[in-house]
Write a structure and sequence with these properties.
single chain, mainly alpha, 0% strand, globular
């Protein structure tokens, strides 16, 4: 899962959202240096990633991309699944996606001192290009994939994956819906446990 799913699955606790958002830049046991709720977000992020990578539905979706994109098939699939979350957003939230995203951007800006340097560096691009809302459209997704190509020095042409997305669109959408239901249950249990 990518940014939108991680944020959404954090629930209503702002500090958990912040921890979950920036968890990729926190290695090993560095999470212990953060306040309790940010630490909870970091650990939730790791639980989401582990659950996702091992889940048979996600693996089936990812496998469709593996021959062409290899290691990057997982990165692409995470972004595709965020697309389906954004596209189906009204099924998951009473708050429309645009104000939800704006509220989150404001949270990050207000709490910038809580962020890692990597998260601080990414923030202007995320807000400027409105990544969270961009996930909802194919055009926005394509823009994100071009940015990913640039970040990965064009190791694989991730922007070309839009072809596979369109080709298997209904199948990916159906798989996402089933998978996300299981992931939500897992996250509710994990949050209660943390």
């Amino acid at each position: 899962m990518n940014f939108l799913a991680h944020i959404y699955l954090s629930g209503d606790n702002d500090a958990v959202k912040i921890g979950n958002f920036m968890a990729d830049s926190i290695r090993g046991r560095q999470f212990e240096n953060f306040p309790p709720d940010i630490k909870k977000g970091i650990l939730l992020h790791r639980a989401i990633d582990s659950f996702t990578d091992a889940h048979p539905i996600y693996r089936k979706s990812k496998h469709r991309l593996h021959d062409k994109y290899g290691h990057y098939s997982g990165v692409i699939m995470d972004i595709f699944y965020d697309h389906f979350l954004a596209k189906n957003w009204n099924n998951y939230s009473d708050i429309p996606l645009e104000p939800y995203a704006k509220t989150f951007y404001n949270l990050l800006t207000d709490r910038i001192d809580s962020l890692t340097d990597r998260a601080k560096g990414m923030l202007p691009y995320m807000i400027g290009r409105n990544w969270l809302v961009s996930y909802a459209s194919i055009e926005g997704l394509e823009m994100i994939m071009f940015q990913m190509d640039h970040r990965t020095k064009n190791r694989v042409a991730m922007h070309e994956s839009i072809v596979e997305l369109k080709q298997h669109y209904e199948l990916f959408d159906a798989e996402f819906m089933l998978f996300f239901e299981a992931l939500q249950l897992h996250c509710n249990e994990k949050l209660a446990e943390l």
